[in-house]
Amino acid sequence: MAGFKLKVYNRTREKLEPLLKLGAQAVNFPAETAEPGSMVITMLSDDAALRDVTLGSHGLCDSFGSGSLHLSMSTISPDTSRDLAQRHRQAGGDYIAATVSGRPDAAATGKLGIYVSGASEAKKRVADILRTLGRNVADCGEDPGAANVVKLAANFMLFSAVEAFAEALTFAEKQNLDRNAVMKALCDNLFDDVVYRNYGKLLAEQHYDDPQFKLKLAFKDLKLAIQCSESADAPMRLAESLHNRMLSLIATGRGDCDFSVIGRGAAEEAGLIHANN
């Protein structure tokens, strides 16, 4: 735990066990993790979960006071971050958004990409923790919602890249080429990037049942991006296409697969049947 003393809470108690073995202290309510002057980190699945943990019964704000700081690492709506920042100021504390890019293995090794936004002085307080968690910390400004905008943009680009690679490999397979060989050729010659290499391998091998980022959570993020684009009058044509791809896969029971199951959708649309999934 990099030398930090932790009080930890999870709505699913069993998920705390690895942290408890490392010396963390479990508490029964979110409010018990916070006290005036303390720092609390949250990472939750959606806006509703964050609001419940923060504003609900025995929520964080019940224990907040002068000098308290809430570091929110959830992928949520920018408007939710802005609203929570205002509520925290009213309680005498600060709210910082610090969204992340990276799969669980990156988190475990402190190699997340982090986007941070909020009040300058509060960002200084969290700088050491963010440097422990991430390989790079990008400052997105003082708007509490800015880090959420950047994260939604990043995820939209990630989903688009995976869709493009899925369609490319399907196209190659329909020409009787080997998916793995094509994936390697493309990455070695043009797309030498961790995203294409990691997801290209999953797409080439068609292994989608070990979810590191579930499709239904990716779909939630995509919908947030579309909602934000509509409010800003910023058309996102690829996002609309991805929405239909993901919705179709969720409707056919694949919401709990890794979101790279997008590759399965592209293959099925082309009349290919893959035995692995």
From TrEMBL:
The name this protein goes by in its record: 6-phosphogluconate dehydrogenase NAD-binding
Which molecular-function annotations from GO does this UniProt entry contain? NAD binding; NADP binding; oxidoreductase activity
Where, by residue number, is the active site?
151
Pfam family of this protein, just one? Answer: NAD_binding_2
Supply the InterPro entries for this chain. 6-PGluconate_DH-like_C_sf (IPR008927), 6PGD_dom2 (IPR013328), 6PGDH_NADP-bd (IPR006115), HIBADH-like_NADP-bd (IPR029154), HIBADH-related (IPR015815), HIBADH-related_NP60_sf (IPR051265), NAD(P)-bd_dom_sf (IPR036291)
| Source taxon at top rank | Bacteria
- Organism (species): Pedosphaera parvula (strain Ellin514)
Domain 3-hydroxyisobutyrate dehydrogenase-like NAD-binding intervals: 145-261
Keywords, comma-separated and alphabetical: NAD, Oxidoreductase
User: Which ranges carry the 6-phosphogluconate dehydrogenase NADP-binding domain?
Assistant: 2-140
